[in-house]
Every structure is written in structure tokens, then in C-alpha cells.
Amino acid sequence: MATMSGAWSESPHGSSSPLEDSEIELLMGRVRRAVLRSCPPYLASQTEDIAQEVMIQLLRKLERTEGKATFSSMYLLKAAHGAAVDEIRRRSRRKESPAMDNEVELRHHERPNPERQAIGRSLGREIRRCLEGLIASRRVAVTLHLLGCTVPEIARRLHCPEKSADNRVYRGMKNLRDCLEARGVTP
Amino acid sequence: MSDRPTDGLHHLRDAFTTGGWDAPADGCPDQGTLWDSAAGTLDPEADEAVLLHLARCGACAASWRLAHEMISPGAAEHAPVVPIGAHRRRPAWRRPALLAAAAVVAAGLGLTTALLVHRGQPAVEPVYREQAAATTLQAHPEALCLPRTNCLLRWTPGPEGTRYDLTVTGEDLTLLHSRKGLEDPQFLVPPEVIPPATTAILWRVTAHLPGGGMVASPTFRSTLTD
Question: What pTM was computed for the model?
């Protein structure tokens, strides 16, 4: 696949791209990094492809405006997010039912390990069950913690002092681990 | 406080989100709402409703996490590196003059107490969050001389959950092969990518640590034997 900057400096119809090359590179870097850190492990090797597909979708969308609008960086990120979610879901479905898609020949390392997937899904379900048993303030704090938020960020979001957020996360995580252990689940 | 039980946190986080790339169910917030929540632009009540929903919905949690990563990439790794427990924020309502006076008195008392209590005890090393500095990547000794048809590159593993990017070039720096997202600290270079005239390869590994940090190895040279 061609590099984004080369492929999109000119549109297929000859009009210039709605974004500068540098903007495309910056945006793509962010998409690539976010996808790598968030996608299922068996899609990690496809990070580049996913990021390029997202950028293609995004630029097609922008080209439809024919230069009649300007876009904030937040708008572009939001649009890229929607495209990335769709692309990851599409590829996840494809991986889980390879027999239904003859166009795709999965290499060995890209095949999801069914056992690991099952364990991961089972653990995910158990985590959610255990979270249901937490008091709401701890449940929200632990959810944010599991989503990758730092304690200062959790404090800002919950409008509470950092110490309080830290406390909720710590006690909530302990509750969660105790619950998982009681259910016979070892993370 | 929340930093103490880090064992398996990465595993929990992955299980909570990355296994949940299913289609959203009826009643799930739309993508725009999830984005606004991750960006922190929802009003507090709506945001709490979304967060409570995330606690029970893997599909939305995965989407929210991706949005969060896009909005504030590597937020965790850019957090200031401070000893655990040293990041407490001062309450804003305190007057500076009163605070300064209290700090002087407290520091004096604290210093005196510390000198009395800890005299003669060995110094305790502070514990830092940063794990990247503690992780170094070295080539396995056996990977420095390899058969051409079984060119298995191996290196020291990072913490559990680390993923690796590998770049392999010839000695003239021509790219021979690259892989991203490797889960194991080893990789068998396909023999067909190594030109027959090549007698040595250069390779380099970048480790993406579970905490979000990144460590790059030096460039290693492996001699190839027939």
C-alpha cells in the first residue's frame, strides 16, 4: 500500500487533499499508536493497515465537502475514531469466522488463539460481574482505572481530590480482586 | 496508593476492553457520546451514566478506550515520575501565608522526628513508577551467530504483556524484514528474505511496555552461517 502522504497529496479527481501532508502524518501517527494500544493482540500486526484504512475513509469523507468547510483537529480525531472502531470490529469479525471470508488467508501468527480468546472473554465477563457488586463511586473509579486513566485524571473527571480518587481506585481494585478470587478467577 | 497492586493490571485492562470488539447492543450510547465522554466534554451526570454503562459493556469500553488513547496518547507514560505517595495536591482553599508557616513548623518537626527515628537505619530506596528505565533489551548470546536457514533472533524479555517491534536490515541498511506487535521475545526470520550474498544482518527491537513506556534496543549484528 502506498504511503499516505504520497497517496493523498492529490485526490483521484485532481483536486488537492483537504489536509496537508504534515497533518496527515500527525493524525496517522496518533491513530496508529491508539490502535496498537487498544486493539485485540491478534490484530496488532495489522496496525499499519488499520491506520491507513482509517485515513482513507477519513480523507474520502473530507473530500466530499469539496473544500467548503474547515475542520478542527478534534473533529478529525473524532471522525478517525469512528472509522477505527468500524475497521477493528470488521477485522475482528473476519478473524473469528475465517471460513466465511475466502479472500483472507490468515498467517499463523495472526490467527486468534481460541483458548486465549476464550479465557480473555471469560475474564472480561467476570470483571464486569464483579464491578456490578461495587458501590457506584468505586465502580466508576475502577472502570476509569481499567480504561487506562491515571489517578489525577480520574480525580479531575470525578471532581474530587486526588487522594479521594486514589482511595476509591485502591479499595475498588481490592474489592475487584477479592471478588475474582472468590469466583475462582486468577488474573 | 492505587499503584501498589500492579500485578496483572495490564492483563485485567486487556480483558476488560480488548476482548470486547463486538457490535454494540441496543441501549448502548452512540459513538459520539462515547467520544464526548472520553474527551471529558459531557456534563457530569451524563458522563457518570456513560461510565456506569462502560462498567458492564465490553463493546463500549473498547471504543471508549480507543477514543481516550487518541485524545491523550500515552497519558500514563507522560505522567510525572514521582515517588509513590508524593503526588498529593494541596487543597486550593488554604492561604499561602498560613500554608508557608505551617510548612516551616511541620518541616522542622518532621526533620527532628525523622532524625530521631531513623538514626542508624539504612536508607530506603524510593519506589518509582517508571519501568522503562529499568528495562533494557539485549540480544541473546546465541542470536549473534545463526544458521541462515534457522535465523532465530532472541532477546531479553520485558515485563509480562510487553509487545515488540522488530526491524531487520542487511549490513548496507537495506530493509529485509520488519514486524510489529510481537508477543514473544524472539522471531524466526524467514530464510527467503535473506539474500544469498548476505553474511550478516543488523537488527533492532523496540519494546512497548504494558505501562505505556517504550524502550529501544541497540542495533545488534548477527553473523550468518550456511
Answer: 0.53
Cβ(B202)–Cβ(B123) below 8 Å? no
Does the CB of B190 have a partner CB in chain A at under 8 Å?
no
Query: Is there a contact between A61 and A19 (Cβ–Cβ < 8 Å)?
Result: no
pLDDT of residue B96: 67
Q: Assess contact for B40 and B14: CB atoms under 8 A.
A: no
For residues B155 and B205, the answer to whether their CB atoms sit within 8 Å is yes
Place of cell 537505619: B121
The single residue listed with the C-alpha cell 472520553 is B38
* CA terminus-to-terminus distance, chain B: 56
CA B207 to each of CA B6, B21, B94, B117, B151: distance values in angstroms, whole numbers, following the listed order = 19, 25, 44, 43, 20
CB A94 within 8 A of CB A111: no
Look at residue B152 and give its three-state secondary structure: strand
> Mind listing the pLDDT tens digit for each residue in B204-217?
898 888 877 888 88
Name the residue among B54, B44, B37, B38 with its Cα closest to residue A159: B44
- Mind telling me how many Å the CA of A11 is from chain B's nearest CA? 26
| B158 CB burial (10 A radius; 0-12, 13-18, 19+) | buried
ipTM attached to this prediction: 0.74
Chain B interface, best mutation among A127, A137, A151, A162, by max B CB count within 10 A:
A127
Q: Per-residue pLDDT tens for B9-21?
A: 777 887 887 656 7
The verdict on B1 touching A (C-beta cutoff 8 Å) is: yes
What is the secondary structure of A22-34 as a DSSP string? HHHHHHHHHHHHH
Res. B190: pLDDT tops 70: yes
